Each structure stands twice: as structure tokens, then as C-alpha cells.
């Protein structure tokens, strides 16, 4: 413990990064020497990895932000900033590296020997999800619990982190609760699927799509309180699913409550003329059907956001059949009247808030919009705020909506347009925007920024090539600029399908690479990989190639890759299709008593 810091620092330059953390735990003397006194160690570790260091580290010395450090030397301030930057990068890198190793172990059907993650595979487990029952959403329930929703059996499952043996620190994962949240039992005539899930401090909400012999699906919002979910009564059925007590599950027919809300609307003279005309058209259509609105189509995007106080936000389009004129030989078509954001209350069983005039008419009525949220931390359920970003693959608009959580009043819901520049649908050098109604526009909120991605494509020499352009926007305010604060282009035939926040400064981009020959229709193999991005410097920290992981899914991946992430605090959970789940992060790795 008496080795001077420059000797310890010199030794650590020859060792891997995790040796720095191990050496700090040997004794207090080494902790102080390595963590506090080493003048250049942290900067060396950053440069060795080629990890970015914020440009303001040197310029910020002595500014108001660092007023508490005014008495510290510039070298000490620089060392502290380098240490904080490295530990931030390394924490994100360690978690994503653990996720990548876990997915690769699933693809190879081998047991993961990585101590940084808990890999729970379904291949040997009874009543586990099987193909095509893939994951559609994951959420951190608490520091050591994760809630995951599965599509075809309409179940939500709670997984716990538990010690593998009482005498060791090894951790494993178990399924604690499995509940079916479908609005109806599946029959030969009617089947249901969960297409989205979210939860807040009190409620779990699931967006369900139900199909019968009719041409259009019906959509339902089903909700259950956390308490009722944990206390689900009754025994498990033959598939290991626990039956809910009567009345525990709230079911709302989304089309009915949306149409009731629209038909009760009163427009002022200042309202948008298009909305007024479309509402008048809806009234006239229903009146011509003797108040029967069964022919009115309501399509809901596969995105759901919990807003607190038993409220859930979704995006929906409302359409009616357009009958051609007598002189027109064309068949009847569907006319989209509205494309709005709606907030439904499972307590009041109705629509309690909606936006107007958010979208132009470019988006097909069956296209999917992206809704993502960021919940500000609060010490009590009555405080805090939820920020929601909304974007479409077909529209140049991005909206930022702020919602006060757990308030009876909805006056705190405010929406800001943070992007209104029309994206150039026909790019230079042959690049076009790649749009598909099955695909959402990648979108995430990281810290004080909204990040979105445009995927571009072009044909060259008989092959289809891709690249992705990442846009960074400042979160919405009344005076916010609508142009991006930064733009990052990812070449190398990259196609981003999802963006996920990793704490406050990093984002994970889930990507795949694919090229299609237009001459002989040969399809090259899909390659899945992660990109870890530092949002403040707009630089790539690392890429994680997943090699054979594409074999876990059915592909092709133009509609999205069924790998879902959630990161909250020091906990990270990943749902991997119908193959298994991965839990990592410091919160998941360490066992603490009295965890709820």
C-alpha cells in the first residue's frame, strides 16, 4: 500500500481496464493513489480506447459550473474530469459488452461464463415462450426485477434476480409471475396479440390487437395495477399462466372511446379548418349509417407510453370508406380523416387529452409512429414529469410533450414542435429515404436531447446499400430551434432499427447490415450489431458484432429486430425474441437485502 502513484500508474498501463477497478479495491491507500492522486492515468486510459473527452473539460475550469472546484488546481480538476468521463464510458461499455456476449451465447446454445450479466435462456424451461411468441417490450420493474411482454400468448412476465446458491455471490434469474392480459380468450374465431407494453409507478398497460374474420383488427387497452399483478390469485393453468381475479384487469375498446370523444368535440372558429371539415365528414358518415360506426376504421400504432395517474398515450388514425362517384369505375377506397395522439384514462374509461394538427397527410393510415418517454426522477409519486417524444417515418415533424405525473389536472400537458424542417425525400447521389409502413422511425430521449435516425438507401452496381443519419435535437421549449444541433452519418451499409438510451450520456443503436442483388435476387446474410454512442461528443464508443445472432430470429429485419432494451439507474434488461432475457448493470449484478 506504500507504492507511490506513479509506480501504480505505470503498472496499470500494461493491464486491462478492469484492473484499475480491482487495484482500487485492494486497500484504501491504493484507492487514494489510483483514484485521486494519479495525474495522467485516466487520460491515458481514455486515449488507449480512443474514447472521447468532452472539449469543455479544459475550458470549463474556473467557470460557474465548477465553482466548487475553484480552490482545486487545474491538474486536479482535469484528472477528476477524466476519471468521471472514463468511468461513465466504461460503465456503458461494460453493460453493452455483457449484452453482446449474452446474445452470442444464446446463438451458440452454450452457457454464458460472463460474470457481468445474468443470461436466462428459455430452451430448457417449461412453459417458456417459444416461436413465434416473441418479446414486444421490456421494462425495469425495480433494481432487480424486469417486466417483459410477449406477443402471441398475451402474457406479461416478471423476472427476479436471485442468488444461485446461498453460499456464493453467483446470481441467476427466475420467472416470478406470469399473467395473461388479453381482452378475450383466444378461440378459433378470435385471436389477440400484445403489440406494446409500458408501466409507471402504479399501473401496467398493454396495447392489444384482436382479430376476427373481419378485414380490420380491433385494438384494446388492457391495464392492471402493480399490486394486483403481484397478488394475482388462482393457480396456474396447463401453460404456467396465473389467472387474474375477476375485475383486476381493465379493458378499454379503443375505437369506441376515441369515436365517442371525437363526436363530442366542439370546434372553435380558430380551429384548423381541415380538422373542422374532417369532423363534419365523420358526423355525416355516421349519420348516413343510422348512427352505426362499425365501418369507421381506427388503426393504432404499436407504441404505448404510460403518463401516470392511470393514463396511457397512443397514436391512432381514424378512417372511413370513400364511395366513388357513379361515373367512376374505381372501387371504394379508405380516406384517413385524423391522425392524432390520444391519452386514455383507465380510471375514467375515456379519452382525456388529445393533440390536433400534429401530422400532415403523408403517412399511410396503417403506418407506425414512434412514441418514447423519459421519466424524471422524483422522491414521491406526486412529483416528477414525463417527457414524451413523437416521430413518424413519413413526416418531417418531431414533437416533444411534457406531462406532469400523477396530477388530476391535464393542464401540465404541453407539446412543442422541435423539428419542422422537411427532410429531403430525394437525397443527392442517388440516396432515398427508406420508408416502410411496418417500420417505426428510430427515436430516443437521452438527457436533454431527442435523437432520431433517418435510414437512407440506394442501388448501385445491382446491389442495395444503406446508411444512417443520426440527428440530435434539443428538448422542446417555447423558444427551441427546430433545426438539429448536430448530425452524425453512419456509413458502412448501416441500417438502424432502434435507438435506446443508456443512462444520461450514451445511446445504443441496434443495427443490421444487408445487401440485396437486383440481378439474380441473391440475398446476402443479415448481420446484427450494436453501436454505442456518446451523445455529448457525437462519437462512437464501440461496435459489438453479433455474428450468428441473426439465426435466433426469422428475419428479414426491415420491420425491426425483436431485441428490446430498458435501462433505468444502474439496471439494464434485454429481451431477446423468444430465446431468453439478459440482465446486467451494477444494480442487477449486486445482491442487496430487502430488494422489492
UniProtKB/TrEMBL annotation:
This is F-box domain-containing protein. InterPro entries: F-box-like_dom_sf (IPR036047), F-box_dom (IPR001810). Coiled coil: none annotated. It comes from the Eukaryota. Residues 1-45 form the F-box domain. It comes from Attheya septentrionalis.
Amino acid at each position: 500500500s506504500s507504492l507511490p502513484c506513479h509506480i501504480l500508474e505505470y503498472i496499470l498501463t500494461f493491464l486491462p481496464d478492469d484492473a484499475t477497478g480491482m487495484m482500487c479495491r485492494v486497500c484504501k491507500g491504493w484507492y487514494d493513489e489510483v483514484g485521486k492522486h494519479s495525474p495522467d492515468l485516466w487520460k491515458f486510459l481514455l486515449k488507449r480506447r480512443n474514447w472521447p473527452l468532452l472539449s469543455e473539460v479544459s475550458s470549463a475550469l474556473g467557470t460557474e459550473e465548477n465553482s466548487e472546484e475553484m480552490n482545486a488546481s487545474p491538474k486536479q480538476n482535469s484528472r477528476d474530469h477524466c476519471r468521471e468521463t472514463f468511468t461513465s464510458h466504461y460503465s456503458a461499455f461494460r453493460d453493452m459488452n455483457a449484452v453482446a456476449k449474452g446474445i452470442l451465447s444464446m446463438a451458440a446454445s452454450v452457457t454464458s461464463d460472463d460474470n457481468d450479466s445474468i443470461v436466462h435462456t428459455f430452451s430448457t424451461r417449461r412453459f417458456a415462450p417459444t416461436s413465434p411468441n416473441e418479446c414486444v417490450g421490456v421494462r425495469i420493474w425495480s433494481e432487480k426485477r424486469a417486466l417483459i411482454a410477449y406477443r402471441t400468448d398475451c402474457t406479461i412476465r416478471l423476472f427476479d434476480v436471485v442468488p444461485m446458491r446461498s453460499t456464493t455471490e453467483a446470481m441467476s434469474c427466475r420467472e416470478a409471475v406470469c399473467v395473461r392480459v388479453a381482452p378475450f380468450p383466444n378461440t378459433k374465431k378470435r385471436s389477440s396479440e400484445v403489440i406494446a407494453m409500458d408501466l409507471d409507478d402504479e399501473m401496467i398497460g398493454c396495447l392489444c390487437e384482436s382479430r376476427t374474420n373481419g378485414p380490420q383488427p380491433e385494438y384494446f387497452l388492457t391495464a392492471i395495477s402493480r399490486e394486483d399483478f403481484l397478488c394475482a390469485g388462482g393457480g396456474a393453468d396447463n401453460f404456467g399462466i396465473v389467472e387474474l381475479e375477476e375485475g383486476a384487469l381493465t379493458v378499454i375498446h379503443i375505437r369506441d372511446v376515441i369515436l365517442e370523444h371525437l363526436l363530442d368535440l366542439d370546434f372553435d372558429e380558430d380551429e384548423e379548418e381541415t380538422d373542422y371539415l374532417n369532423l363534419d365528414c365523420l358526423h355525416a358518415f355516421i349519420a348516413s349509417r343510422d348512427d352505426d360506426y362499425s365501418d369507421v376504421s381506427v388503426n393504432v400504432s404499436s407504441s404505448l407510453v404510460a403518463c401516470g395517474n392511470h393514463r396511457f398515450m397512443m397514436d391512432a388514425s381514424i378512417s372511413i370508406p370513400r364511395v366513388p362517384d357513379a361515373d367512376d369505375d374505381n372501387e371504394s377506397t379508405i380516406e384517413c380523416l385524423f391522425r392524432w395522439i390520444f391519452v386514455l384514462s383507465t380510471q375514467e374509461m375515456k379519452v382525456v387529452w388529445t393533440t390536433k394538427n400534429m401530422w400532415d397527410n403523408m403517412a399511410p393510415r396503417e403506418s407506425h409512429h414512434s412514441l418514447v418517454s423519459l421519466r424524471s426522477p422524483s422522491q414521491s409519486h406526486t412529483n416528477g414529469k414525463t417527457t414524451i417524444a413523437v416521430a413518424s417515418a413519413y413526416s418531417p415533424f418531431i414533437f416533444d410533450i411534457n406531462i406532469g405525473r400523477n396530477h388530476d389536472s391535464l393542464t401540465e400537458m404541453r407539446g412543442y414542435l422541435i423539428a419542422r424542417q422537411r427532410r429531403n425525400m430525394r437525397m443527392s447521389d442517388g440516396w432515398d429515404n427508406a420508408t416502410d409502413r411496418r417500420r417505426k422511425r428510430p427515436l430516443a430521449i437521452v438527457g436533454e436531447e431527442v435523437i432520431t435516425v433517418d435510414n437512407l438507401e440506394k442501388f448501385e452496381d445491382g446491389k442495395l446499400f444503406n446508411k444512417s443519419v443520426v440527428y440530435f435535437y434539443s428538448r422542446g421549449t417555447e423558444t427551441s430551434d427546430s433545426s438539429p444541433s448536430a448530425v452524425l452519418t453512419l456509413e458502412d451499409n448501416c441500417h438502424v432499427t432502434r435507438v435506446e438510451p443508456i443512462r444520461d450520456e450514451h445511446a445504443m443503436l441496434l443495427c443490421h447490415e444487408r445487401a440485396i442483388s437486383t440481378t439474380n435476387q441473391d440475398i446476402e446474410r443479415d448481420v446484427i450489431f450494436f453501436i454505442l454512442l456518446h451523445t455529448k461528443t457525437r462519437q462512437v464508443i464501440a461496435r459489438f458484432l453479433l455474428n450468428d445472432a441473426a439465426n435466433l430470429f426469422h428475419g428479414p429485419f426491415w420491420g425491426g429486430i425483436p431485441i428490446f432494451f430498458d435501462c433505468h439507474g444502474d439496471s439494464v434488461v434485454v429481451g431477446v425474441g423468444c430465446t431468453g432475457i439478459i440482465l446486467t448493470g451494477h444494480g442487477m449484478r449486486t445482491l442487496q437485502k430487502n430488494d422489492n
